[in-house]
Amino acid sequence: MEPSPDAVLIRRTLTEIAPVADKVTSYFYALVFTGHPEVRSMFPAAMDAQRDRLLKALLTAAEHIDNPEVLGPYLRRLGTGHRKYGTQPAHYPVVGEALIGALSRYAERTWGPETEAAWVRAYTAISQTMIDAAAQDGQRAPAWWQAEVVSHDLRTADIAVVTVRPDQPYPFLAGQYTSLETPWWPRVWRHYSFASAPRADGLLSFHVKAVPAGWVSNALVRHARPGDVLRLGPPAGSMVVDHSTDNGMLCLGGGTGIAPIKALIEDVAEHGERRPVEVFFGARSDSDLYDKDTLLGLQRSHPWLSVRPVVGDGLAGQLPQAIGEHGPWNSYDAFISGPPGLIRSGVDALKRIGIPRERIRHDAVEELAGAGVAG
């Protein structure tokens, strides 16, 4: 399909600014904060974690301006997700002005009246979709949930299972994730997967690994205790079980990426299904297989479940290699959860052994990078 004239102009701009993306980002935020200092309080005190995200999201949306099947769901997720920051319709023109200002400064060769008009049209459409999605979501759900920590189970020196009680019902599906903010780092949000299927008592559990320079992860592992109150954003993610099929499930989980896999197992069990579920659970050392006993207990309870721990360095290569030694997997749906490198290598390995790309499910790598798995 031929790109629209606006899409051609937008992509030329994106190509030109790619080598100076850092400068564009810095200038963009300078324009936002100097022109509208009242919005500074909506952002973290330290901007290193947040710095690239807003502009990158806008540029990603603009890049897909001709693809409504991709763009629509992406923008609706962005619009509803931004409610937790306190974003209002009046904030969108502020961001739009800064975006146009930054692009016009650094896209010197491709910028002109036609290009500017194309970007204004694109941003107007993008922002309106996000505003509408936020308004619709506001009619059925809060912008965030308060959640009290009820237990903190330190499984290893760096991994904790944190269980919280939301202050009101929190609907989600097994395999999804949420964004989480701690009282120690206000306005800094990170993504974490739910470690169980929805429970009758309403409690939510997360598996958290403290990583170097990870503000939220270290706060949750080192400092969180029962009684502390966290904030949860809305659920997100499409790595969920399709209960309209009885296809086998091949699950690949690395490190704390086993958390949503465990939730998927519970979901299958609760639906009374007996489809084969094959789980490969990887870690760098045996001590890092922190949830192995729970998974092996589930295996003893469910004859359709098989759990294979995989230990070794080079996790991104080790797990896919182990999967290739078993099978065949051509009648299975695949689920991958873990660090971005594992997801990328896992998708490639699964395609090589014959699983079609459309039957491989995982969370968006760009949302995981620097977020729940790394922060």
Which helices and strands appear, and what pairs or packs with what?
Layout (H helix, E strand, L loop, with lengths): L4 H13 L3 H15 L17 H11 L4 H14 L9 H16 L6 H26 L6 E10 L4 E8 L10 E5 L7 E5 L10 E6 L5 H9 L5 E4 L15 E7 L3 H13 L6 E7 L8 H10 L3 E7 L3 H10 L7 E6 L2 H13 L7 E3 L2 H4 L7
Parallel strand pairs: 7-8, 7-10, 8-9, 10-11
Antiparallel strand pairs: 1-2, 1-6, 2-5, 3-4, 3-6
Word description of this protein:
The protein has 375 residues and is of the alpha/beta class. 41% of the residues lie in helices and 18% in strands. It has 12 helices and 11 strands. The strands form 2 sheets. The protein has a 6-stranded antiparallel β-sheet. A 5-stranded parallel β-sheet has the order 9-8-7-10-11, with helices on both faces. The protein starts with a helix and ends in a 7-residue tail after the last helix.
For the structure shown, list the relevant keywords.
single chain; 375 residues; alpha/beta; five-stranded parallel β-sheet; 11 strands; globular
Q: What is the helical fraction, as a range of percent?
A: 40-55%
In what order do the strands lie side by side in the largest sheet?
A: 4-3-6-1-2-5
Largest sheet: 6 strands, antiparallel
Whole-number mean pLDDT: 88
Number of helices: 12
What Rg do the Cα atoms give? 22 Å
